[in-house]
Amino acid sequence: MQIIDAHCHFWRLARGDYGWLAGEGGSLAPIRRDFLPRDYPAEAPRLIAVQAAPTVAETEFLLALAAEEPRIAGVVGWVDLTDPGAVETLQRLATDQKFKGIRPMLQDIDDTDWLLRAPLPAVLAAVTSLGLRFDALVTQRHLPNLLRFVERHPDLPVVIDHAAKPQPEGRAGWEAGLRRLGENTNAFCKLSGLLTEFSLKMLARPADEIKAILSRLLDWFGPERLIWGSDWPVLTLAADYDRWRDLTAEALRELSPAEQAAIMGGNAARFYGVTP
Hints:
There is one protein chain. With about 280 residues, this protein is α/β, with parallel strands linked by helices. The chain has helices spanning about 55-70, 85-95, 115, 120-130, 145-150, 170-185, 200-205, 205-220, 240-250, 255-270; strands at about 5-10, 45-50, 70-75, 100, 135, 160, 190, 225-230. An 8-stranded parallel sheet has the order 1-2-3-4-5-6-7-8. Helix 5 runs parallel beside helix 6 (about 170-185) and helix 6 (about 170-185) runs parallel beside helix 8 (about 205-220).
């Protein structure tokens, strides 16, 4: 089985635009250091590097890493969707074949309605016409508006990062929102970023929790629209890479070999347009 890690991050803190990593101490202390391709903990997988700072400069940084690191098959970057100049920026970035899509950091925007009212139609049209993808970094509160957004832009490939970050409590809204997206649109969903959302109680039995979430995602999206990713190095706040890989392998065990291969690599290759 050829694995594509469809969601990992690299950063160099001295670049200075990782606001969410600023400060000292606290829960983020273990990842408040540089993480580069040489630090990635597995040898074989091909990677999709995803932005972790809302700047074009960081997108260019990731593309520079991709030019040097053959394992990086694609980059999901960032542009200001409210800036008319973003059309030209997208056109420039898209001359690099490893530039695969964009990710506005929706979870960090207080206005839940931002996605429906703020992005300029010309910029979204450019994303679509250039053959780029849209990573939706959302939580439960965004799901109704994300459904409307996907319905308004049926030709824009959308993937929901981290399965919209299901929380330990109050799953009803998450289930209803994600089910509607899975059953009524062509959106994909990433099986990633789950462990760092688990409570301590859930981390005591992660295999059961992951299977419960996966069963719902399979019902809503099917094995043909689920994409595996590690969310490394954020993952390491809860577990190491091998632990997450083993847990997901166990959760997928009852699926056919073809379905497992699709989730672990084939679907990412198809969605992002990369070679398996």
